[in-house]
């Protein structure tokens, strides 16, 4: 976005079961940013602090927020300073039944005196055989059972968004779709996606309404924890007649 064709950053991170400390330095932009996450009251409250500083000062920011999780509800409150102006935010999400939940969010940005609000509904449809036990893979969280999830959100500024997620095979095959529609501008967009997971590899594929296809293949180069991970990405844009390819290697110490 800033016109640079390459970037170099220095990053350090320390984490344990209840906290995270991260700092990053960008020598080219001469910027420094950092994050602190800390769990309180046995994980009932998660506090977060984010700081960003640049020489110009126009994009400096300070944000503090707290996530609060109850038995059937969750909430978030935040306060900060963005571009020299205050920012306030709050959201609340409540489960009405085991399969149906709803909530809303409000955000105020003092720089442009902008007040934004959004509302969301979530409904889960258990699939046939949902009561059957699912196999838990070693070192992985418990898999989600086969089901379909529909999420609808509305914002006066961004319009209506519909998301659909279908877990075909737990920890193996997941399908999804997203539809965005703005009644004010009469603009819409649709994206279809699929995820295929194996024991040491994962493939993500997406296709949008403009014929743009993207794929990402990630594979672990070994069976032991902490082994290097190889990533291969590809993009095919039929409308612009463009093709891109990239690769990455991640090594954990």
Structure description:
This protein has 253 residues and is an all-beta fold. 0% of the residues lie in helices and 64% in strands. The protein contains no helices and 17 strands. It has strands spanning 10-15, 19-26, 31-40, 45-53, 61-69, 73-82, 85-95, 100-109, 114-126, 147-155, 159-169, 173-182, 187-197, 201-208, 212-220, 229-237, 242-250. It has a 17-stranded antiparallel sheet, with no helix packed on it. A hairpin with a 4-residue loop joins β12 (173-182) and β13. Mean pLDDT is 87; it is low at 130-134.
Structural class: mainly beta
Using the CA coordinates, give the radius of gyration: 21 Å
Oligomer: single chain
Terminal CA distance: 31 Å
Strand content: over 45%
Q: What characterizes the major β-sheet?
A: 17 strands, antiparallel
Order of H and E elements: EEEEEEEEEEEEEEEEE
Task: Let me know the number of strands.
Answer: 17
Q: Regions with pLDDT < 50 over 5+ consecutive residues? A: 130-134
How much helical structure, as a percent, in the residues? under 10%
- Note the overall shape: globular
> What is the residue-averaged pLDDT?
87
Number of helices: 0
